[in-house]
Design brief:
With 69 residues, the protein is of the alpha+beta class. It is built from two helices and three strands.
């Protein structure tokens, strides 16, 4: 399984678990490290992981008339 197939699988699972909330995931292990609508808490988690040298990505399920790219 390629990296992108694995990424899509994990993002899809996270979106099913947190359907309306943004999700912060690590890019190496695909671990969900934060979710929710509180942007300041999510930013703190992103800064924390960034200071450790790890990359994170934020994903959010689009509303019905939008496309996820």
């Amino acid at each position: 399984m390629t990296y992108y197939e694995n990424l899509i699988k994990h993002v899809h699972a996270a979106m099913k678990k947190h359907p309306r909330s943004p999700v912060v995931m690590t890019t190496d292990t695909f671990e969900v490290v934060a979710s929710g609508k509180n942007v300041s808490k999510m930013a703190a988690v992103i800064r924390k992981y960034g200071s450790q040298g790890r990359l994170t990505a934020v994903f959010q399920k689009p509303i019905v008339n939008q496309t996820f790219i």
